[in-house]
Design brief:
The chain is α+β, with helices and mostly antiparallel strands. The protein contains 4 helices and 7 strands, in the order βααβββαβαββ. The termini are far apart.
Length: 140
């Protein structure tokens, strides 16, 4: 696995995992282009994206972590996890937030393993499709 800067076209190549499939209809070409930036990346295996992610600044010292994962990423998860750990250490933000679908237990385990703490167990109608999310934060 290699990590490269995120490009909007990488998002079009993903086969989203079932837990994130609801996002697909809401991701426009314009939105994907907006995600490109200094703090966004793509995990690639054999020239195929297996995950994209990054941090979007909300304001000085605060950012929201985002990721979209391919359904075929499982065998590479340890490498992806380590890359995200290194990425988090490079971020200039004092507070980084992550939201996880309230019913997606693997997502909860992952953000906890990355050092995030649960702050809000249920934010009602937070997701783009109206679903509920939990809010986690990692504060330096």
């Amino acid at each position: 696995m290699i990590v490269v800067p995120f490009r909007a076209e990488h998002l079009q190549q993903l086969q989203l995992q079932d837990a994130q499939a609801y996002c697909g209809p809401h991701i426009t070409a314009e939105y994907a282009k907006m995600l490109e930036g200094q703090f966004s990346f793509t995990a690639m295996v054999n020239d195929r994206p297996i995950g994209v992610g990054g941090a979007t600044e909300l304001w000085e010292h605060r950012a929201l972590l985002w990721s979209l994962v391919d359904r075929r990423a499982g065998p590479h998860f340890v490498a992806v996890h380590r890359a995200v750990q290194r990425f988090l250490e490079t971020l200039p933000y004092r507070r980084v937030e992550a939201e996880v679908d309230v019913d997606f237990e693997p997502g909860h385990r992952w953000v906890k393993a990355l050092g995030f703490t649960l702050e809000a167990p249920r934010m009602r109608a937070f997701r783009v499709d109206g679903g509920d999310s939990a809010l986690y934060a990692r504060v330096k």
